[in-house]
Design a protein that fits this description.
globular, alpha+beta, binds zinc ion, 6-stranded mixed sheet, 3-stranded antiparallel sheet
């Protein structure tokens, strides 16, 4: 038996799971059997760690149910990008293309270092809690909503990759969640709220919260899909 299906089949045999559909069919001389089973995943005792990645705050993290959060300013990444962009622009104007490319390599190294540093901080934060599971927004969803698109998307993509493989190495599961409305909805009552700068307020239940932390709380509460490096 394949390893992948050993566990579900054991559960089925032990009566912990329901068989929902069984099909037997024939293709040529071979007979096939497929079935779906349903069982509850054991997620008790897990601490969802919601991670919002943005520009003003490169990391907004909430350990859901633990009342602990972490906010990291996006200033350093912004500074690196701005510095090298203006350097590149002036070198391009001067026609110094080789020098311009070297600047590009340097920027890449700076951003890579930063991504290593930030992903280590995130893993250290997550490791404080019992059975942490890291939840992040789906990459495609984030790309759509603006600032990470185009030239900066590799920064973001690399950051997510670093988080994922460092988490795996630390034995922490990583899930990606649907990014839809994570920053517009109230993390307490799920109503649409309003944002004023860094502040999110809910018109329905009156809750006020740092906007990026509100988003990270929403991310922590969403059902995720497994994500592998
Ligand atoms: Zn609310």
């Amino acid at each position: 038996m394949y390893d992948d299906i050993a566990d579900p089949v054991d559960r089925l045999v032990e009566g912990d799971a329901d068989k929902t559909r069984l099909q037997v069919y024939r293709r040529g001389d071979d007979w096939y059997c497929t079935f779906n089973i349903e069982y509850d995943a054991d997620t008790s005792g897990e601490t969802p760690i919601g991670v919002d990645i943005g520009e003003r705050h490169i990391l907004a993290v909430t350990a859901y149910g633990e009342d602990e959060s972490m906010l990291v300013s996006g200033g350093e990444a912004k500074y690196v990008r701005r510095k090298y962009r203006s350097l590149r622009d002036s070198l391009s104007e001067a026609g110094a293309l080789r020098a311009r490319n070297r600047v590009g390599d340097k920027e890449q190294r700076r951003i890579t270092d930063l991504n290593h540093k930030l992903s280590r901080r995130l893993i250290a934060f997550a490791e404080q809690f019992e059975n942490p599971v890291i939840r992040m927004e789906d990459l495609e969803g984030i790309r759509e909503n603006s600032s990470w698109s185009g030239v900066h998307s590799w920064h973001f993509h690399q950051f997510q990759q670093f988080i994922t493989y460092k988490a795996e190495r630390a034995g922490i599961r990583v899930e990606k969640v649907d990014a839809y409305h994570t920053s517009q909805r109230c993390s307490a009552c799920d109503s649409m709220g309003t944002r004023d700068g860094d502040h999110f307020s809910c018109t329905e239940c009156g809750r006020g919260r740092h906007a990026d932390l509100n988003a990270s709380e929403n991310i922590a509460q969403r059902e995720g899909e497994p994500c592998t490096a």
